[in-house]
Amino acid sequence: MSRNLDGTLSYQVSVQRLPQKGLNVKIEADKKERDAMRDFHELEDVKSFKADLQVVPWKKDGIRVRGKVQAEIVQACVVTLEPIETRIDTDIDTLFVPENSRLARLPLDENGELIISADGPDIPETFSGDKLDVGAIAEEFFELAVDPYPRKEGVEAAPPLVVDVGSDDEEDVKPANPFAALKDWKQKT
């Protein structure tokens, strides 16, 4: 395995002559790669990272990547800053087509307006050349599975504090009431 310029995973697969059954790819990041992932994704630690993928031909010149990414990471709780161990187990199912493929074009209606359906399938992503970086694809799905606001079990977010700066009394420090502005507004109307 090699690294991208940003220090993350890279595993190039030639898609020029893929077997009809596809190609199975297993990726297991070593310590150096996990450390690079830890730093790049701003985690406390990446204890393990594995991807088990299948790269298969799709339609005429497209590629389908399916599989699973599993990892064990350590993040800091957003409330207490204590370390939290998290297990990531996410599926991959995505399509790629060459840049010049008609399948990469966004669908337009009869008026020439772009048609996008939130419930519809995603359009395939594009690639150039004769290789696809399945390591980067696996890492992208890993990143999407990482909780951006991890919270230790049983810990609730602390309410913001309001401090009366005109007083030295500790009694003037109290939790902010999120409905205070609404109450003040109702009293004014």
Kindly summarize this structure in a few lines:
The protein has 189 residues and is an alpha+beta fold. The chain has helices at residues 31-40, 134-145, 180-188, and strands spanning 2-3, 9-10, 12-14, 23-28, 45-58, 62-76, 83-98, 125-127, 131-133, 161-163, 173-175. It is 16% helix and 37% strand.
Q: What's the order of the H and E elements?
A: EEEEHEEEEEHEEH
Specify the helix fraction band. Answer: 10-25%
Low-confidence stretches: 1-5
Give the number of helices. 3
Present the secondary structure layout.
Layout (H helix, E strand, L loop, with lengths): L1 E2 L5 E2 L1 E3 L8 E6 L2 H10 L4 E14 L3 E15 L6 E16 L26 E3 L3 E3 H12 L15 E3 L9 E3 L4 H9 L1
Parallel strand pairs: 7-8
Antiparallel strand pairs: 1-2, 3-9, 4-5, 5-6, 6-7, 10-11
3D structure, described in words:
With 189 residues, this protein is an alpha+beta fold. 16% of the residues lie in helices and 37% in strands. The chain is built from three helices and eleven strands, in the order E-E-E-E-H-E-E-E-E-E-H-E-E-H. The strands form four sheets. The protein has a five-stranded mixed β-sheet with strand order 4-5-6-7-8, with helices on one face. It has a two-stranded antiparallel sheet with strand order 1-2. Strand 5 and strand 6 (62-76) form a beta hairpin. The longest helix has 12 residues, at 134-145. The radius of gyration is 24 Å and the shape is flat. The model is unreliable at 1-5 (pLDDT under 50).
